[in-house]
Amino acid sequence: DIQMTQSPTSLSASLGETVSIECLPSEGISNDLAWYQQKSGKSPHLLIYATSRLKDGVPSRFSGSGSGTRYSLKISDMQPEDEGDYFCQQSYKYPLTFGSGTKLEIK
Amino acid sequence: EVHLVESGGGLVQPGRSLKLSCAASRFTFSDYYMAWVRQAPKKGLEWVAIISTSGTTTYYPDSVRGRFTISRDNAKSSLYLQMNSLKSEDTATYYCAREGPRISFDYWGQGVMVTVSS
User: In which element (H, E) is residue A26 found?
Assistant: First the structure.
């Protein structure tokens, strides 16, 4: 199985700040990487697929990058509504696996 | 917008069975792979099963293979998860999800809670 090591576990950011979350697959996943946001008590929402493709309607302050065994999600100009948990997911190989999550809070 | 509504959750004893349902609407259900993803309390996400558009192809992780069965009824726009031989570690919120681009999950239901306890 492909293990997805996600970091940091948690972080806090001020409004307007830029934050980054990293995901390290245990083997190459050929850019088959998605990012999800989950707000407290709600279901997850897709933000980005194929490493860097934004789902329609997702604000452009979200961006994704990476290749091989290193991927990241960047949130520019942190907004109050960005608070929540973030998860990466690989779809290169079954079983599909998720990172352990990053809790993002407003400082 | 795409609408997914899960049902069938509840409290069940270890070793017993439970069947979850997901009613889909506002999209052509038969055009999409569908999946179940679960989340144990205060934990991360775990993919549970996925099924092809026709229902002929399914995949599972080792943790549920042989105990869980995913199925669908395209005529009813419904997805199902039959869970047998339930264990305490199956306790989680179960989400129905539509497969999006590159096997991401682009729409999720609100989730249904399953508690396995004696």
Answer: none
DSSP-derived letter for residue A81 is G
Contact A34, B86 (CB under 8 A): no
At B42-56, the pLDDT tens digits run 999 999 999 999 999
Task: Tell me the H-state helices in chain A.
Answer: none
Interface probe with B: pick from A6, A21, A43, most Cβ of B within 10 Å? A43
With beta carbons under 8 A apart, name residues in chain B contacting A98: 44-47
3-state secondary structure chain B: CCEEEEECCEEECCCCCEEEEEEEECCCHHHCCEEEEEECCCCCEEEEEEECCCCCCEECCCCCECCEEEEEEHHHCEEEEEECCCCHHHCEEEEEEEECHHHCEEEECCCEEEEECC
Cα separation, B98 vs A91, whole angstroms? 14
pLDDT at B19: 98
Q: Say if residue A25 is preceded by a cis peptide, omega within 30 of 0.
A: no
CA distance B38 to A24: 22
B58-114 confidence digits (pLDDT tens): 999 999 999 999 999 999 999 999 999 999 999 999 999 999 999 999 999 999 999
Nearest to A93 by CA among A47, A32, A41: A32
Q: Residue A1's pLDDT is what?
A: 97
